[in-house]
Inverse folding.
């Protein structure tokens, strides 16, 4: 029994009254009683039931393209059908097929050598010096190409920055620095806040757009915000790609250690630290090194499909839709056959919780006594752990045009550990919807916390980003660090313990003592936000000058 019930009963309150009080939704101007009642119906025990099933060993860690992943998709689609929601996938079904291929580098058959114009070649050691993936999906690839240092590898017209000015990189290998030019000016690469230009994924994409055949990202722990072990371990497993992705064409998408970069610059008679400093200042010009990369990349390749699961609740308003979409990824890491003992990555918190919330939101909307003005979409997406691939495909092939999607609200890894009194909605402040978010948070007794690690680029590492990049205003709804009955230090310690001991580990399992009342509160908060977004008289946009404003204008046909 929940610990609040004995105290409440001693005060003469019924258990039903206590539940009603916990589930209450505050009165908010413009939100009907019917909407509040639907939000109040969100039940933490229903969220628990979904998480318990999705995190069961039966589903084998929900790896995309596996039996367990397919079972999870079928379960979610069945729930949507039980709620009476319309299918919004392929051919009148709830399922959108996502075509994928997975690449595993065969490290003992892969070779990298730096060949200078003068001097002895340098053979690299896989894992300790470098890691690489062939994005093309070929079993083997051979490279013999010049290396061009392009600084941070960024073309950002809004910041008057172009590392590619005056240099032809087609058919060449690019040497780039991780992160973005250092800045304390919020108007220049957002100061301390990482933009997408700083993400390693952008550097690969921009290189591919310009016809390069390979990239060597220089790893530096202080700039990357993580050590070399993180890079090496993430590349030791297979990496999936979307079939037909025009930005996944590199034969060698690679990282190299800083010490190796120093040797590379020395072969060209240059100092690496000096060149890195110069690359972060205006006036930098890229240049070709007198060194070639000679490489052979061997890969095991697996072709497969996985499903996004999508449902729709039509709105009542006539005319062009301004749909709201709720998203959460259902995939996790599957099974590691080489791991002794428990080798199933159950992913209870990551992201069984987000899926449980998504399903309970779908039920509450579908059973509301009135419908919102515009359509509400629900999408459980696949292959998030492989690089946001399911949501990327959904953003490229949405069930309604991107210009007709007002907002994406994403749920990813909400720890079931009590009732939050603070929330993190990083990225919401970039949209014109933010005043509504602030007002609604106050009504729910939630203090909005800023991103605690703005330089880590968390905004670009969850599924809402796939919608932002096609112009749709988007952010994730998450808990902060302050929980009822505890101080913020306790919440921070719980989060740190999870990351240190359970994140992406087989120990991320369901336990009966998990407290889903907080997940339900965050679901109600998101329900009301979505209802308000659907009811606005004007479309939601990005703040003027935001990096995604141009994509929104393009989707609306303004550019």
């Amino acid at each position: 029994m929940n610990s609040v019930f004995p105290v409440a009963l001693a005060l003469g309150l019924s258990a039903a009254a206590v539940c009603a009080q916990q589930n209450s939704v505050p009165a908010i101007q413009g939100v009907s009683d019917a909407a509040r009642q639907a939000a109040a119906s969100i039940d933490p025990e229903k969220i628990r039931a979904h998480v318990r099933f999705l995190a069961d060993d039966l589903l084998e860690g929900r790896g995309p393209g596996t039996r367990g992943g397919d079972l999870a998709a079928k379960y979610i689609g069945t729930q949507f059908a039980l709620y009476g929601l319309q299918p919004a996938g392929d051919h009148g079904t709830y399922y959108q097929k996502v075509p994928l291929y997975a690449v595993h580098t065969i490290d003992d058959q892969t070779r990298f050598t730096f060949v200078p114009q003068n001097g002895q070649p340098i053979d690299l050691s896989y894992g300790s010096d470098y890691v690489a993936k062939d994005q093309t999906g070929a079993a083997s690839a051979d490279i013999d190409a010049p290396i061009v240092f392009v600084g941070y590898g960024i073309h950002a017209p809004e910041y008057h920055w172009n590392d590619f000015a005056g240099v032809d990189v087609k058919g060449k290998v690019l040497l780039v620095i991780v992160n973005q030019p250092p800045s304390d000016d919020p108007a220049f690469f957002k100061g301390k806040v990482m933009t997408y230009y700083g993400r390693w994924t952008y550097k690969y994409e921009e290189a591919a757009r310009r016809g390069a055949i390979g990239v060597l990202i220089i790893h530096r722990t202080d700039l990357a915000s993580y050590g070399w072990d993180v890079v090496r371990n993430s590349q030791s497993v297979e990496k999936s790609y979307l079939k037909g992705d025009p930005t996944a064409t590199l034969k060698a998408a690679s990282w190299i250690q800083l010490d190796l970069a120093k040797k590379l610059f020395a072969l060209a008679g240059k100092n690496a630290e000096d060149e890195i400093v110069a690359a972060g200042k205006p006036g930098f010009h890229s240049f070709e090194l007198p060194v070639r990369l000679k490489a052979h990349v061997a890969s095991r390749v697996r072709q497969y499909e996985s499903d996004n699961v999508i449902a729709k609740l039509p709105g009542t308003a006539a005319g062009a839709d301004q749909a709201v979409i709720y998203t959460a990824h259902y995939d996790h890491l599957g099974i590691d056959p080489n791991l002794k003992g428990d080798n199933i990555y159950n992913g209870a918190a990551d992201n069984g919780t987000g899926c449980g919330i998504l399903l309970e939101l779908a039920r509450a909307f579908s059973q509301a006594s009135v419908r919102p003005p515009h359509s509400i979409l629900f999408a459980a997406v696949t292959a998030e752990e492989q690089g946001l691939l399911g949501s990327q495909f959904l953003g490229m092939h949405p069930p309604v045009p991107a210009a007709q999607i007002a907002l994406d609200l994403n749920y990813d890894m909400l720890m079931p550990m009590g009732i939050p009194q603070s929330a993190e909605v990083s990225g919401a402040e970039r949209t014109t919807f933010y005043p509504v978010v602030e007002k609604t948070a106050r009504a729910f007794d939630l203090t909005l916390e800023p991103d605690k690690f703005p330089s880590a680029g968390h905004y670009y590492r969850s599924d809402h980003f796939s919608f932002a990049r096609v112009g749709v205003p988007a952010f994730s709804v998450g808990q902060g660090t302050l929980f009822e009955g505890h101080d913020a230090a306790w919440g921070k310690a719980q989060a740190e313990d999870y990351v240190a001991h359970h994140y992406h580990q087989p120990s991320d399992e369901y336990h009966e003592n998990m407290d889903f009342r907080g997940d339900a509160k965050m679901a109600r908060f998101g329900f009301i936000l979505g209802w308000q977004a659907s009811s606005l008289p004007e479309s939601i946009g990005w703040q003027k000058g935001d990096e995604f404003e141009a994509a929104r204008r393009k989707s609306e046909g303004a550019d």
User: Anything to note?
Assistant: The chain has two domains: 29-100+304-555, 103-302. Confidence is low (pLDDT under 50) at residues 1-22. The longest helix spans residues 348-366.
